[in-house]
Design goal:
The chain is mainly alpha-helical and 265 residues long. 77% of the residues lie in helices and 2% in strands.
Length: 265
């Protein structure tokens, strides 16, 4: 039961952050899931893949809950979501297939470095100038493929990449966050399918798995996250989140450092 309580707590925190900042929550989910899976003595060579796959599956639920709340506030630009989705699905599937072939320790280093990048982006608060318009179909597909690939590799909803891109294309911040939350759903679909497929028929994985998705963790984390994600999205439209973003960045740095030290050791 203590593991279920830990999964519920993790889901509540990740869901709220997903709604508040327009991210899928994976930047928090993956390092903590990795610690929990290690504590349960899951196979060391696959704990990182399990953490990524399970986090990606959780984003299916957090993105839906967050997207619904942002849509109610009129903050989702659906034409952008529909135009970028084909590339997102393709890139996310490829990213999951690629990640599953990389040794866990190298994947952990790549994830930690990406988290440092995301944290620096938040702390510096550097946004690209709104200097262009949204590209056409080919450009949106290319952006979607790259975003889906990176997002699936590190199990995020894509907000770290999509929000700056949309701001660069003259999309207001509120709509960039809401649209990013909606784009997290196709990211999660492509990534989850990839991690399920690549993790099938691996005998050393723990029971109750679906490929690289650990179902008990998925169940309890998702249950809590779908409750708190709308609360975070609602807060994003009512609060000044500048200080919270800085604290979130500090949390990310601490989690990434803990993971990096573990991998190096």
């Amino acid at each position: 039961m203590e593991w279920y309580a830990a999964y519920l707590t993790l889901g509540a925190i990740a869901g709220f952050l997903a709604g508040l900042f327009g991210v899928g929550g994976g930047l928090v989910l993956v390092p903590v899931l990795l610690l929990l899976f290690d504590a349960q003595q899951f196979p060391a060579e696959h704990t990182m893949h399990l953490a990524l796959g399970t986090s990606m599956a959780v984003i299916l639920f957090t993105s839906l809950a967050s997207m619904r709340q942002h849509h109610r506030h009129g903050a989702v630009i659906w034409r952008v979501v529909f135009s970028i989705t084909p590339g997102i699905l393709l890139g996310a599937g490829i990213g999951a297939l690629f990640a599953s072939s990389i040794p866990a320790h190298r994947l952990g280093i790549f994830f930690a470095l990406f988290v440092y990048f995301a944290a620096a982006q938040i702390l510096l608060d550097k946004r690209p100038p709104a200097s262009r318009q949204l590209p056409g179909w080919a450009g949106m597909t290319a952006v979607g493929t790259f975003t889906g690939w990176v997002s699936s590799m590190v199990s995020i909803g894509g907000g770290t990449l999509i929000v700056p891109f949309l701001i660069w294309c003259n999309v207001p911040l509120r709509h960039a966050i809401g649209t990013s939350a909606a784009i997290g759903f196709p990211v999660a679909i492509g990534g989850t399918l990839g991690y399920v497929f690549t993790g099938m028929n691996i005998p050393v994985l723990p029971a109750s798995n679906l490929g690289f998705v650990y179902l008990p963790a998925l169940c309890w984390v998702a249950l809590a996250s779908i409750i708190t994600a709308p609360l975070g999205a609602k807060a994003a439209h009512r609060m000044k989140v500048a200080l919270l973003r800085k604290l979130f960045a500090v949390l990310l740095i601490a989690l990434a450092t803990r993971l990096l030290l573990k991998v190096i050791a």
